UniProtKB/TrEMBL annotation:
SUPFAM superfamilies: Composite domain of metallo-dependent hydrolases, Metallo-dependent hydrolases. It comes from the Bacteria. Residues 1-19 form the signal peptide. This is Amidohydrolase.
Length: 432
C-alpha cells in the first residue's frame, strides 16, 4: 500500500511537470527596433540619460543620447523614462537540470563516480522547465548550466533562456570543466568520533583525493601529447580544451587553503582557472591578482564560514575584491533561487560597490568570466541585443518591475507559472 501511494504521488508530480502553459519561445526579430526616452545602463559603468538604443537582426546597431530615429518601416517604443539594462547572466546553476528536488525522476545533474569530465550538461538541459520563465521575468536572460557531484563533474555550457530545445538554447557549449574540491577543514563530530577518512584525518583524506585529480591531469597531458593512440580515452579527450586554454577549469572551493591549492593547480598546468564560491577570497586577493584568477562569488546572502569573521562579511566581500582589482561576478545557489540574483547584487551595492559596479557584477563581469563578453554583457554596438527594460532600479526588490525583455532581439514572454497562478486565484476569489 505504501509503495502504491508513492507511485501515485510520483506519477501525479510527473503529469503536473509535463503540463504546458501558453508560453512559447519568441520568433526571430523582424525589422529594426528603437527604444527611446530611457535611462540606459550600459553595463560597463556608463549611464546614458534620455537615451536611445536600436537593434536589428538580433544585434545592437546604435546606442546613445543622440541616435537618429528614421521614419518608415521601423518599430519605435517610447519607454517613458524607464531603465534599460543588459540581460542578467547567471554564472553557475543547475537550472534546467532539475525541476522538483524531491522527485528523483526530474533530477539529471549528477553522474555516478568521481572523475566524469566527459559528461556534458548541455544535452540534459530541459528547455521546458517551469523555473526558467520565473528567472526570465526577473531580467535573467542567460545562464551557465553546471553539472554537479564527484570531483570532476563534467562540462558546463552557457544557454539563453528562450528556446524550444537545447540545441537552440546553446549560447556557448562546453566552455568549462568543473572540479569540486574536497573541503580542507576538519569537521567536528557531535558524537565524539573522529572525522571520516582512511586514518581519521579528514584533511589528509581530502588532500589524497586532490592528488588523485592532479594525477588524472598529468596522465591526460601525457595522453594528449601522443601523436597516435591505441584506443580513445573519452575522459582524457574531454579535458583537451583545458590544456589549449579553449576551456576554463572552474574550481569550486571557499577556504583559503583550498584557493591556494587552486593557485597551485594553475601554476603547474597553466590552466585558465576560475574560483567558484570564494567565501574567503578577500583574504587572498594578492594571490588571486598575481595569478589572474577571477572569482564567482556564490550566495552572498549567507553567514560567514569562520566564527571570527564579521557577520556581514559575505555582503562586503564583493567590494573588497573590486578594490583589490580582482575580476569577479555574483551568483546564487541552486536553480530557482537565481531569480533573486539582481537583489544579491543590490546588497553588494549597499556594502561598498557603486550601483553600476554591482550591475557589472551580474552582467559584463559574468560575461568576461564565462568567455562570452564579445557577444553580451553590455549594451554596445555589435553585441547581441540581450536587453531588459524595468520601471525602476533592477537591483532594488521594491522598485524593479520588468516590462520588456529581448534575447538576441526577440521580444520574449514575461509570463511565468507564478503569474498565471496569481491571476487564476484572483479570478477564483473575485479579486480583480
Amino acid at each position: 500500500m505504501k509503495k502504491l501511494f508513492f507511485y501515485i504521488l510520483g506519477l501525479t508530480a510527473c503529469i503536473q511537470l509535463q503540463a504546458q502553459e501558453t508560453i512559447y519561445p519568441a520568433k526571430p526579430q523582424e525589422g529594426r527596433i528603437y527604444l527611446r526616452n530611457a535611462t540606459i545602463h550600459v553595463g560597463n559603468g556608463q549611464v546614458i540619460n534620455n537615451g536611445i538604443i536600436a537593434f536589428e537582426n538580433g544585434k545592437i546597431i546604435a546606442v546613445g543620447s543622440d541616435v537618429p530615429v528614421p521614419q518608415g518601416d521601423v518599430k519605435v517604443f517610447d519607454v517613458n523614462g524607464e531603465h534599460i539594462y543588459p540581460g542578467i547572466i547567471v554564472p553557475e546553476s543547475n537550472l534546467g537540470l532539475t525541476e522538483v528536488e524531491a522527485v528523483r525522476s526530474t533530477n539529471d545533474y549528477v553522474e555516478v563516480g568521481d572523475i566524469n569530465p566527459s559528461v556534458r550538461s548541455i544535452v540534459s538541459y530541459n528547455t521546458d522547465s517551469k523555473v526558467i520563465a520565473t528567472l526570465r521575468s526577473n531580467g535573467i536572460l542567460l545562464a551557465q548550466v553546471v553539472p554537479q557531484g564527484g570531483l570532476l563533474s563534467g562540462s558546463s555550457s552557457v544557454v539563453q533562456l528562450d528556446a524550444w530545445n537545447w540545441e537552440d538554447a546553446a549560447y556557448k557549449t562546453d566552455n568549462g570543466i568543473h572540479f569540486n574540491m574536497p573541503r580542507l577543514m576538519a569537521r567536528g563530530n557531535p558524537f565524539g568520533a573522529s572525522a571520516p577518512g582512511p586514518s581519521g584525518d579528514a584533511v589528509k583524506a581530502a588532500m589524497e583525493r586532490i592528488s588523485g585529480v592532479k594525477a588524472f591531469f598529468r596522465d591526460a597531458k601525457a595522453y594528449l601529447a601522443e601523436s597516435k593512440h591505441k584506443s580513445t580515452n573519452l575522459k582524457y579527450e574531454a579535458v583537451k580544451g583545458l590544456f589549449d586554454r579553449t576551456q576554463k577549469l572552474f574550481i569550486h572551493c571557499d577556504l583559503v587553503k583550498e584557493m591556494l591549492v587552486a593557485a597551485d593547480i594553475k601554476r603547474e598546468f597553466n590552466f585558465d582557472v576560475v574560483i567558484v564560491g570564494g567565501t574567503d577570497a578577500w583574504m587572498v586577493t594578492d594571490v588571486l591578482k598575481e595569478q589572474g584568477i577571477p572569482v564567482i562569488l556564490n550566495q552572498p546572502h549567507s553567514l560567514p564560514v569562520m566564527q571570527d569573521d564579521d557577520v556581514d562579511q559575505p555582503y562586503k566581500t564583493a567590494a573588497q575584491l573590486q578594490k583589490a582589482g580582482i575580476l569577479f561576478c555574483i551568483s546564487n545557489e541552486g536553480f530557482w533561487q537565481q531569480r533573486n540574483l539582481a537583489f544579491n547584487a543590490g546588497t553588494a551595492g549597499a556594502y561598498g560597490l557603486s550601483k553600476e559596479e554591482a550591475l557589472s557584477a551580474i552582467t559584463l563581469n559574468a560575461a568576461k568570466i564565462l568567455g562570452i563578453a564579445d557577444k553580451t554583457g553590455s549594451l554596445e554596438v555589435g553585441k547581441d541585443a540581450n536587453i531588459v527594460v524595468s520601471k525602476g532600479d533592477i537591483l532594488d526588490m521594491k522598485s524593479s518591475v520588468i516590462t520588456r525583455a529581448f534575447i538576441q532581439g526577440r521580444s520574449v514572454s514575461l509570463e511565468d507559472k507564478h503569474k498565471q497562478l496569481y491571476e487564476r486565484y484572483k479570478y477564483k476569489y473575485d479579486l480583480n
